[in-house]
Amino acid sequence: MKKILAILLVLSLCLSLSAVALADGVYTPGTYSASEAGHEPGVTVTVTVDKNSITDVVIDVSHETAAIGGVAAEPLAEQILAAQGSEIDGVSGATETSAAVRRALSAALAEAAGKEAFGEKTLVADGTYSGKAPGFGLVSQMVCDVTFENGAIKAIEVVDESDSLTGEWFASAKELLIPRLLESQSLEVDAITGATASSNGIKNCVGRAIEAAGGVADEWYTPIEKSDAIVEIRDYDVVVVGLGGSGVLSYCAAADAGASVFGLEAAGKIGGNSVCTYGPMALNSEYLKKTFTDGQDYINEDDVYNTWIEYVESEDKADIIQKAVYTSGESLDYYVDNFGFEFTGLGLLGSFVVPEWDKEWCVYTPDPETGWNILGPNKTYQFLRALDIAMEKNEKNTYMTELRAEQLIFDEAGKVIGVQAKYYDGTVYEIYGDTVILATGGFMGSNEMMLETFGATVNPIGDTVNDGAGIRMGISAGGATYMMKTLPMVHVSQVANLIRTDDLTPDQKAILSALALTTDMPMVTTLGEPWGNTNQSGTVDEDVSVEIVFAPDFMYYNIFTQADIDKIRTEGLSEAQAVATSRFLSQGGTLPEAGTAVADIDEILSVGEKYNDVISAGSIAELAGKIGCSADVLSETLGGVETTYYAVPCTSWGYGTVGGLDVDVNMNVLREDGTPIENLFAVGQDSEGVCNIDGKAYTPWGGQAQSWTFVSGKIAGTAAAAVAKADA
Ligand SMILES: Cc1cc2nc3c(=O)[nH]c(=O)nc-3n(C[C@H](O)[C@H](O)[C@H](O)COP(=O)(O)OP(=O)(O)OC[C@H]3O[C@@H](n4cnc5c(N)ncnc54)[C@H](O)[C@@H]3O)c2cc1C
Q1: CATH class for domain 230-488+657-727?
Q2: 700 lines ligand 1 (CB under 6 A)
């Protein structure tokens, strides 16, 4: 009897304890937020809880790549509400965003539960374990070997990164990030700016190695303390913001003109997008003539100038376009003669924009040690060498990387007197100078500015660091913009989301790309209207066509019916599909010959659908719903045939934007009223709108963008030094 009573007592105690737990609840009701880094910093989860459950989730992914992480917020929020916690599947193709959301949610829920976000780590076994994860590489994933000893990470070695698209950027992630991971023993360390995908690749590899060693990767995201120091740097003649092509070239010219120069660069290395290029256009350069054409002129500059003016339909900026044409050769010569630049060849190629126009460009000499990467010659060494030469001209001259300019500093009268910037460790730098040159490479990295300007984003091939900071700073000083709506530099088409995992083999990825790039299927715009070859002859154009990249919203859909897919399964790709590959952004596979049955087409489509590279629908109305267009319009375009459809998005991949700040012939930023802000300059992509026109592609001589970095850099550096001297 006693025993039964005891059991009853224990039971009633348990019941009352759980009643207390339920009465108190798991959480303190309210709204809690936490942020984590996904592909970019700033993935924020805001969760509302009552005592025992999650009642609402808002996920801010506005800094993530629009087409990948950007579309993950809604499904992730649904998963969280269903799971009532962070045990969610995540969204395929948006692994980094999904992981960041999981961690941010855990942190927010821990706060709601009044717990420490990070407790003890599950022990990892001693030894070396491998982790594999997508980096920036297009063909294969990154592999790291991670050695653990006494529960800590002792060594990280990247053992496979064979196909990195941007070898030079990857190197900065490897050199800077690994020591920080070892020192902090935390996966929370920031990605190296300018090498985000490579950095996250390394961190994810380490995370997987932690799991392989019996640990829990999420427990290794322990907070990293940031510095709150403020450092003042004073008395420079010229401050150069951004040390890509135009920044380095401005720096050199200013130093050469006797100025003291401070340069700041947000990325972990200098060079920006300029180190992705083949090279600049340079018309009748003496160096190129001597080296390649026995001293003969190789182009008629008047023809180029006249065609250019005709193209931009205005002489408003004729003085600047004259500089862009008639001084392109001598600008290149100046940097060859004074700063050691070298070029390996001279090429006459068809224009990207108007096929019958030629463009004249030369190719950088590659680094003798590292040679070429997929995008072109490795050439950071040339820009570093030039900076070294420039720094020797004045012992005060220096520069810093991983220092991101955030705003201009003004005196009480509103005059620009410097730049405020943040170092990767949180330290704020105030750098004071007589003049400031903005060289931050345009705004393709800012989804907000892209949407505001074009109503659509473009997948970046180049730097997402270039997020319009320079243009916004120029505007904050009263500067005007010019031809902001010049179309972005896009010459490459590909699937919307590159699949960087092993979910498909490279050959399967090549087939998926061919479905996006082929020119023999009906093409449909985001509004459901016909585009490109639709209703035309369907001729095969192996080259990337401007029609494709400048479709409305910078994308369109290739539409396949079930019958088309069945035909591919049994009879293989058509002649057009079997040659539809992307320059630069190939995923490494080989397409089967036309007529070879593609038995695994259904697998390719279904993986493609997981990554938002394929949309399938059982009817026109369903397809229209998924595309977000009118069913009537789409039905008319597709001839009203009801069947199962597969829409494969073909999207534009871009190098950078073109429109920027309005400048005069000295590269001085101009106000709306046309007067110059005398000590503020803008170069490269931050001011290239002055050579262009809204609504059209940038001027058609391909190397012209890089040429502008030479021309504008030389002018601005020299002019800024002169203004600083006059001020002194
Ligand atoms: C893959 C690829 C291939 C290309 N091929 C060619 C070609 O063959 N010929 C050609 O003419 N053009 C080519 N281009 C275009 C060309 O690279 C650009 O037009 C040119 O490099 C722009 O130079 P820039 O100095 O304006 O920008 P960048 O060279 O990109 O320099 C901008 C710099 O500013 C830094 N930065 C950004 N924000 C901040 C901040 N807030 N604070 C501090 N620093 C900041 C960036 O990290 C970067 O280093 C190509 C571009 C790409 C991406």
Answers
A1: alpha beta
A2: no
Distance 3 CA to ligand 1 centre (A): 80
Alpha carbon nearest to ligand 1 atom 7, residue? 277
What span, in angstroms and rounded, lies between the C-alpha atoms of 448 and 464? 13
Mean pLDDT of 460-484: 95
Asked whether 702 lines ligand 1 (CB < 6 A), one says yes
> In angstroms, rounded to a whole number, what is the distance separating the alpha carbons of residues 258 and 237?
9
Query: Does pLDDT of 238 surpass 70?
Result: yes
**572-611 residue pLDDT tens:** 999 999 999 887 777 778 999 999 999 999 999 999 999 9
Q: Which of 290, 291, 294, 242 is nearest to 269 (CA)?
A: 242
Question: Could you give the angle at which helices 73-83 and 95-112 cross, rounded to 10 degrees?
Answer: 40
Question: CB–CB of 66/447 below 8 Å?
Answer: yes
Fold of the 21-112 domain: Sufe protein. Chain: A (3.90.1010)
Is the entire prediction scored with pTM above 0.70? yes
Ligand 1 atom nearest 281 alpha carbon: 11
CATH T-level assignment (fold) for domain 491-655: Flavocytochrome C3; Chain A, domain 1 (3.90.700)
Domain ranges of the chain: 21-112, 127-220, 230-488+657-727, 491-655
Mean pLDDT of 216-242: 95
CATH of domain 127-220: 3.90.1010.20
Q: Answer yes or no: is the C-beta of 273 below 6 A from any ligand 1 atom.
A: yes
Phi/psi class of residue 242: alpha, beta or left (left: φ > 0; alpha: ψ in -120 to 50)?
left
pLDDT tens per residue across span 148-198: 999 999 999 999 886 665 567 888 899 999 999 999 999 999 999 999 889
